[in-house]
């Protein structure tokens, strides 16, 4: 297996840690951004992230067809950073996609990938029970997806306060 899965809270240092793992490999760097710029603040965040990564990364914006994009760019000598799965889950929910099928397709892709993969996601199951149905469904979907990805990843890290805790591998 060639996938590394990185979980943690918001602003915990997940992306910074993931980018450092990718950079250390010396492989051709690809970044799949799953977020959508719904407002000016998100547009500014995305622009800042691109600027911070610099020109040594090829960025692919893919809010829905994550497995299709992975298949299109998969190859030896490459490393792909996916940031982040929770934004992808949100996009799938908003488009009323078949979650189980989408999740299974991603989990099934991991062991077959030629490129190394680094996957980032927000751990959302450590807080209080959300007050509304959609938020509870989101939390449940994310939890199921995280279990599937962790089972199919060679390494799993949990990040808190910028510190990585290796959980698997």
TrEMBL record:
<dbReference type="InterPro" id="IPR003203">
    <property type="entry name" value="CobU/CobP"/>
</dbReference>
<dbReference type="GO" id="GO:0008820">
    <property type="term" value="F:cobinamide phosphate guanylyltransferase activity"/>
</dbReference>
<keyword id="KW-0548">Nucleotidyltransferase</keyword>
<keyword id="KW-0342">GTP-binding</keyword>
<feature type="binding site">
    <location>
        <begin position="33"/>
        <end position="35"/>
    </location>
    <ligand>
        <name>GTP</name>
    </ligand>
</feature>
<feature type="binding site">
    <location>
        <begin position="50"/>
        <end position="53"/>
    </location>
    <ligand>
        <name>GTP</name>
    </ligand>
</feature>
<keyword id="KW-0067">ATP-binding</keyword>
<feature type="binding site">
    <location>
        <position position="61"/>
    </location>
    <ligand>
        <name>GTP</name>
    </ligand>
</feature>
<keyword id="KW-0169">Cobalamin biosynthesis</keyword>
<keyword id="KW-0418">Kinase</keyword>
<keyword id="KW-0547">Nucleotide-binding</keyword>
<feature type="binding site">
    <location>
        <begin position="8"/>
        <end position="15"/>
    </location>
    <ligand>
        <name>GTP</name>
    </ligand>
</feature>
<dbReference type="GO" id="GO:0005525">
    <property type="term" value="F:GTP binding"/>
</dbReference>
<keyword id="KW-0808">Transferase</keyword>
<dbReference type="InterPro" id="IPR027417">
    <property type="entry name" value="P-loop_NTPase"/>
</dbReference>
<comment type="function">
    <text>Catalyzes ATP-dependent phosphorylation of adenosylcobinamide and addition of GMP to adenosylcobinamide phosphate.</text>
</comment>
<dbReference type="GO" id="GO:0005524">
    <property type="term" value="F:ATP binding"/>
</dbReference>
<comment type="pathway">
    <text>Cofactor biosynthesis; adenosylcobalamin biosynthesis; adenosylcobalamin from cob(II)yrinate a,c-diamide: step 5/7.</text>
</comment>
<dbReference type="Pfam" id="PF02283">
    <property type="entry name" value="CobU"/>
</dbReference>
<feature type="active site" description="GMP-histidine intermediate">
    <location>
        <position position="49"/>
    </location>
</feature>
<feature type="binding site">
    <location>
        <position position="83"/>
    </location>
    <ligand>
        <name>GTP</name>
    </ligand>
</feature>
<comment type="pathway">
    <text>Cofactor biosynthesis; adenosylcobalamin biosynthesis; adenosylcobalamin from cob(II)yrinate a,c-diamide: step 6/7.</text>
</comment>
<dbReference type="GO" id="GO:0009236">
    <property type="term" value="P:cobalamin biosynthetic process"/>
</dbReference>
<dbReference type="GO" id="GO:0043752">
    <property type="term" value="F:adenosylcobinamide kinase activity"/>
</dbReference>
<comment type="similarity">
    <text>Belongs to the CobU/CobP family.</text>
</comment>
<protein>
    <recommendedName>
        <fullName>Bifunctional adenosylcobalamin biosynthesis protein</fullName>
        <ecNumber>2.7.1.156</ecNumber>
        <ecNumber>2.7.7.62</ecNumber>
    </recommendedName>
</protein>
